[in-house]
Amino acid sequence: xxxxxxxxxxxxxxxxxxxxxxxxxxxxxxxxxxxxxxxxxxxxxxxxxxxxxxxxxxxxxxxxxxxxxxxxxxxxxxxxxxxxxxxxxxxxxxxxxxxxxxxxxxxxxxxxxxxxxxxxxxxxxxxxxxxxxxxxxxxxxxxxxxxxxxxxxxxxxxxxxxxxxxxxxxxxxxxxxxxxxxxxxxxxxxxxxxxxxxxxxxxxxxxxxxxxxxxxxxxxxxxxxxxxxxxxxxxxxxxxxxxxxxxxxxxxxxxxxxxxxxxxxxxxxxxxxxxxxxxxxxxxxxxxxxxxxxxxxxxxxxxxxxxxxxxxxxxxxxxxxxxxxxxxxxxxxxxxxxxxxxxxxxxxxxxxxxxxxxxxxxx
Length: 363
Known about the structure:
The protein is mostly helical. It folds into two domains: 7-166, no CATH class; 240-352, CBS-domain (Roll). It is 52% helix and 7% strand. The chain has 16 helices and five strands. It has helices at 2-8, 18-43, 55-65, 74-94, 98-115, 122-132, 135-140, 146-166, 190-193, 198-208, 216-234, 240-243, 257-266, 287-290, 317-320, 343-353; strands at 271-275, 281-286, 306-308, 327-331, 337-342. The strands form two sheets. A three-stranded mixed β-sheet has the order 3-4-5. It has a two-stranded antiparallel ribbon with strand order 1-2. Strand 4 and strand 5 (337-342) form a beta hairpin. Helix 2 (18-43) packs antiparallel against helix 3 and helix 4 packs antiparallel against helix 5 (98-115). The longest helix has 26 residues, at 18-43.
């Protein structure tokens, strides 16, 4: 049944799932219904104004089906539809021929939306509605762009925001920030120093000569994850259990901080797992925490970053290159301490399995 469902549902958008589309459909149903209801309560007594404008149907497709798209963000929906409606009204008043006015309205809307950074495909429909909307739109004049157009858009975005919050989605979409250098120097974060750079992405886009519906920040993060997934796929047979340290130096939560500091220096390590009498991992203490003063380890320990023995080792590249994490605590099937995976362990493994660089020929 599951295979049949997956075969029947073949999304054209990357990352889309059947559940996503069902949720999107439910969101459109609820929020367009609420927008129309609020319109009826606001100006239902005025027969000269429509309760809801047609372009909102297309706006809701973007808002619920692709909420991460730059074209589906609040300013795109509200600004794009409102500005486009103004362009349509202006074109209708300047050009007597309706067909020419329709073309001018849509073309002008595209240009103005682009300059005002609110490009929104349904804006073309908003511009066209202002030209061919008939006596109701004509009699409203420029006010049509604000009531009902802008008002409908504001209500749709507000209800969409509440719906996405309830469903656990982030809206408006926030582009993930670039990895930061935690050492307060001018160098890029370690994860950004190798591989492709932002200018490489720009050059590739220029070479393709096409426009894609994805923010540059999202595209950069996607490509970084593609690189990591390719590495994991190539060397996925190497698990944390294969390369982790097994004879782990640990400390109890009641121990003195100075004892932890001494252990770190004695064994020349950067982190100690903090475990209770039953072997359950409570956290970690590193040099940073051990320098904080006196008292018990439990008062200064940091949360432990954990994974399991069968996790592909190269999945730990991201956490171990964030500039702060020096070790990942490895747990067995019972959730007990099994080992510790450090930056050194991962580098040693990478040196063995990754191909060596080609020698540079002498001039």
